[in-house]
UniProtKB/TrEMBL annotation:
<dbReference type="GO" id="GO:0015074">
    <property type="term" value="P:DNA integration"/>
</dbReference>
<feature type="domain" description="Integrase catalytic">
    <location>
        <begin position="276"/>
        <end position="455"/>
    </location>
</feature>
<keyword id="KW-0233">DNA recombination</keyword>
<dbReference type="InterPro" id="IPR001584">
    <property type="entry name" value="Integrase_cat-core"/>
</dbReference>
<keyword id="KW-0815">Transposition</keyword>
<dbReference type="GO" id="GO:0004803">
    <property type="term" value="F:transposase activity"/>
</dbReference>
<dbReference type="Pfam" id="PF13936">
    <property type="entry name" value="HTH_38"/>
</dbReference>
<dbReference type="InterPro" id="IPR051917">
    <property type="entry name" value="Transposase-Integrase"/>
</dbReference>
<feature type="compositionally biased region" description="Basic and acidic residues">
    <location>
        <begin position="1"/>
        <end position="11"/>
    </location>
</feature>
<comment type="function">
    <text>Required for the transposition of the insertion element.</text>
</comment>
<dbReference type="InterPro" id="IPR025246">
    <property type="entry name" value="IS30-like_HTH"/>
</dbReference>
<keyword id="KW-0238">DNA-binding</keyword>
<dbReference type="InterPro" id="IPR012337">
    <property type="entry name" value="RNaseH-like_sf"/>
</dbReference>
<comment type="similarity">
    <text>Belongs to the transposase IS30 family.</text>
</comment>
<dbReference type="InterPro" id="IPR053392">
    <property type="entry name" value="Transposase_IS30-like"/>
</dbReference>
<feature type="region of interest" description="Disordered">
    <location>
        <begin position="1"/>
        <end position="25"/>
    </location>
</feature>
<dbReference type="GO" id="GO:0003677">
    <property type="term" value="F:DNA binding"/>
</dbReference>
Length: 466
């Protein structure tokens, strides 16, 4: 017994060190998932809690996009029977100051036996001595208290085989031969909607869960909820289904997306101050001219033509959006310009070039949908003086004049045709054809005649006031 190490009195089996105990960042992780829950990205949430972006991305990826149950907002607080991490820090400080077990227990308001047992069981033993560190002690306590429950898909091979076959089974032709489909490598992330997707039976987890009740009506062991299937796919710590099988889901997501983040995705440029509800009332009654509605008409090969329609006179102007040099010749650089010609910068320049040719009296507001091509609307407002407003999502009727005009333009620019083949002169000719067409809403006057009347009345008003 002379050579026995003091750490043998810790009364626990030796275990290899898995690295730095993670308890030091438990509160950081809790705040990290709180920020994720309000819609922040993993990078922004990591910066918000004071860790690197790579650490935040790893936390998000390892958890499958879902906060761990012990860190979620619904998790129960620790019981008062057990020592808290703050108490373990106090124990470490008092022991470093030379306080005895009973003195430490008196200051903490705990039993001396509790402190003595804590110093023996949860001490750091790598050096062979019973040194006490708060982070290591908390780590040992959590490992001892862990009661992992194996996933149902791990303990029931028949159920796992059924789920995998309905989720990732091969597609079979009517004759019974398997159809492999395209070979799609696993990239560890969601595949784009236009890329080849893996062919599989692709039953949804809910379909699998409900079908089990029909295929095995009397077998209670063949039951699983669809949420358990999702967690087995996204949370790899459960050890049931490989994450590669998420490619068989209809969304193809390798990670879950928090609901708050998905609600604000792609709409960061639409703030409450520029929504259509803030548009002045004079734009609704069509009495005051100068309020415009705009949109893009899309064609083959990512070609597009921009449209601007004045609400009072129905006067139409078309925006020429040619493709940029290099489109289709090389792979587009990440975060580079939209070479198709209808990116935010190209649309802003086209609107500015077209609308500034009009008098200031006809430049009051512009209403657009929530497309990404209008992300530079603050600069457009500065360059042209237009107040830009955005419609509500999936509400094209809020730009009814523009939608009706786009329908008329499809006579000249049918769907499925390359709109980039038309020059600026061609677009001007089509706009002139529409603007010289009699309209019932204008008392059978043409939009050009209605606009001329507006301009003449504006000039008369200026002459009178002077």
């Amino acid at each position: 017994m002379a050579g026995r190490r003091r750490s043998d009195w810790a009364l626990r089996a030796k275990s290899p060190s898995p690295g730095r105990p993670g308890v030091a960042r438990r509160e950081d992780r809790r705040r990290f998932w709180t920020l994720i829950g309000v819609g922040q990205s993993s990078w922004d949430a990591a910066i918000g809690v004071g860790v690197s972006e790579a650490v935040g991305s790893r936390w998000f990826r390892e958890a499958g996009g879902m906060p761990p149950s012990t860190l979620g907002r619904s998790s129960k607080p620790p019981s008062g029977r057990h020592l808290l991490f703050a108490e373990r820090e106090e124990i470490a400080l008092l022991r470093a100051q030379g306080c005895g077990v009973r003195e430490v227990a008196r200051r903490l308001g705990r039993a001396a036996s509790t402190v003595s047992r804590e110093l023996r069981r949860n001490a750091a033993t790598r050096s062979g001595n019973l040194e006490y560190r708060a982070t290591t002690a908390q780590w040992h306590a959590e490992r001892a208290a862990r009661r992992p429950k194996p996933a149902k898909l791990v303990t029931r091979p028949a159920l796992r085989a059924y789920v995998q076959d309905r989720l990732a089974g091969t597609v079979v032709a009517p004759g019974g031969a398997a159809v492999a489909g395209p070979a799609v490598p696993w990239k560890g992330r969601r595949h784009g909607p236009r890329q080849p997707r893996r062919w599989a039976k692709a039953w949804s987890p809910q379909q699998i869960s409900r079908r089990l009740q029909l295929d095995f009506p009397g077998d209670g062991t063949m039951r699983i909820s669809h949420e358990a299937i999702y967690q087995s796919l996204y949370v790899q710590g459960r050890g049931a289904l490989r994450r590669e099988l998420t490619a068989c889901l209809r969304t193809g997501r390798a990670l879950r997306v928090p609901r708050a983040r998905s609600c604000g995705r792609g709409k960061s440029h639409v703030v409450p101050a520029v929504k259509i509800s803030e548009r002045p009332a004079e734009a609704n009654d069509r009495v005051v001219p100068g309020h415009w509605e705009g949109d893009l008409i899309l064609g083959l090969g990512s070609s597009a033509v921009g449209t601007l329609v004045e609400r009072t006179t129905r006067f139409t102007m078309l925006l020429h959006l040619p493709r940029m040099p290099g489109h289709g010749d090389r792979v587009r650089a990440k975060s580079g310009p939209a070479l198709a010609g209808h990116g935010a910068e190209a649309v802003r320049e086209a609107i500015t070039r077209t609308i500034t040719a009009l008098p200031e009296a006809l430049r009051r507001s512009l209403t657009w949908d929530q497309g990404a091509e209008m992300t530079e609307h603050p600069r457009l407002r500065i360059d042209t003086g237009l107040q830009v407003y955005f419609c509500d999502p999936h509400s094209p009727w809020q730009r009814g004049t523009n939608e009706n005009t786009n329908g008329l333009l499809r006579q000249y620019f049918p769907k499925g045709t390359d709109l980039a083949a038309h020059s600026a002169e061609d677009l001007a000719a089509v706009a002139a054809a529409l603007n010289t067409r009699p309209r019932k809403a204008l008392g059978w006057r043409t939009p050009a005649e209605a606009l001329d009347a507006v301009l003449q009345s504006a000039q008369t008003g200026v002459a009178t006031t002077s």
